[in-house]
Amino acid sequence: MALVCVQNAGRSQMAAAFAERERNRRDAGDRIEIVTGGTRPADRVHDVVVEAMRELDIDLGDRTPREVTPDELQRADLIVTMGCSASDVCPATWSGENRDWGLDDPHGRPLAEVREIRDEIAERVEALFDELLSETPSTG
Fold it and tell me: In the Cβ-directed half-sphere of 90, how many Cα atoms lie within 13 Å?
């Protein structure tokens, strides 16, 4: 799964952190690979995003936005963009399914609005894991 936005400094970072948490909670490390990146990465994760995630005991302060590679997109079975249509955001093509979550960009927004975006991302990630793991046979 690839979680992508332009700057990889807000929505996709939150989504990746929630996805990692869900993968660990559900013991799905052998079934779900998580990649996050952007097409024009920022220098750092937005401060307001770091603050909002710390409220949930998730620290994004040490994460660095990165560029998603065409190879990563080619390997992904599912690409989730955060509110920027994939055709506009990703210069590469891919063979996996694409979904756009249509989320507001948290950059420059007050903390209360970022909390709403964060909570929506958490709900969407949980629902996505419900869907993916119901379709993925367990090994063991």
Answer: 29
